[in-house]
Amino acid sequence: MDERALLDRALAGDVASTRALVQTLLPVVRARVARTLVRRRGGSGRDVRQEVDDLAQEVFAALFADGGRVLRAWDPARGLSLASFCGLVAEREAASILRSGRRSPWTEAATELDDLEKDLGEMPAADVHVSSREQLARLVDRLREQLSPRGLELFHRLVIEEEAVESVCASTGMSADAVYAWKSRIGKAIRRIAAELAQSEPRVSETAASTRTPPESGE
């Protein structure tokens, strides 16, 4: 059974398919959670395996919350396999939990929006001001539509999670120049989207025109 069929049957409530889906996703979820745990905490005195298990349970709670809302957002046409998509969700959810200390399913993107609202103004390539969280959410949705899978991963790691460039280089094998180029490209995408939104939504203002954009390095 392919990923799409397995997911559809699991979301339809088939118990066997749900069990099979969890078993399929468990290795990548655990691996991504463990990587995030080591990167952010380096161990906390607890049994690391227990910490990984706890975080993995939170990730699956998030994936299946609200009738599988997060899982239903997976679109294979955007280039990510289901496992890779869930791995990305696992990293983001684990990092959010470790940062905030919360222990509840990811039923909304409030934490992500808080981070993005703070970080956008700090990015060298963009100084974006929005007047409501709804408008900020629309900006994030547009950004997700336009970024490639690699760009989406780097957006979350560099902007949302504020991961150091050196750490991204070490885990991806990319050069520092390539990572900085991506960071610049993401910033430009944010400025462009904000400008487009400003044309149709007057309450969104984009003031990056006066901000100098660093020259892109080679990829």
Can you characterise this structure?
By secondary structure, the chain is an all-alpha fold. Helix content is 68%, strand content 2%. The protein has 2 domains: 1-107, no CATH class; 108-219, no CATH class. The relative contact order is 0.10. The chain has 9 helices and 2 strands. The protein has helices at residues 3-11, 15-40, 48-72, 82-100, 110-120, 133-146, 149-160, 165-172, 176-200; strands spanning 128-129, 205-206.
Could you give a short account of the major beta sheet? 2 strands, antiparallel
Please state the average pLDDT score.
Answer: 74
Helical residue percent?
Answer: 55-70%
* Rg over alpha carbons: 18 Å
User: What gross morphology would you assign?
Assistant: globular
| Integer count of domains | 2
**Numbering strands along the chain, what is their spatial order in the largest sheet?**
1-2
SS summary, helix count: 9
Number of strands: 2
Poorly predicted regions are: 103-111, 120-131, 203-219
Strand content: under 5%
